[in-house]
Amino acid sequence: MPQITKGGKFVFGWSVVRSNGQVRLPDMAAEEYNIASEGKVVLFTGSAKTGGFCVTRHGLLQESPLGVLPDNPDLASYERPEGHFVSYKGRKYCWLTISEDRTLTLTEEMLKILDIGPGTRLLSIRGSCYAFVMGAKGPLLERANRYEGEVDCFV
Asked: Residue 1 pLDDT more than 50?
């Protein structure tokens, strides 16, 4: 797992949004966060600086101080329709099924909300212990594009 800048964040690799909205998550990120263990993941919008989205699962999100699951019982119980976002404390959250090969399928509406589209390169960044980031823009992605070492790409 490369560290793009000395003392900076670790990255797991690049993922490319396919024409059908599918995004393959990097193996190391999926393994470190045990992301596919529940068969479903929770996505939430990324920061204004990095964009994209963050990926977590209920088991991790329940332990976080965010309070999103207790305050949104339809998200916690998966009663909210799959891929339908709910706004909470400045971010948008939804749940999705994750395939065995760690692929997510984002609808056109989700892509619009996340401000990404087919062909977008997302940089998977180690975030907190609760979620990893699939960043779409910003200084870290610019540095990753200039990085001379190897960063895996998942298509």
From this structure: no
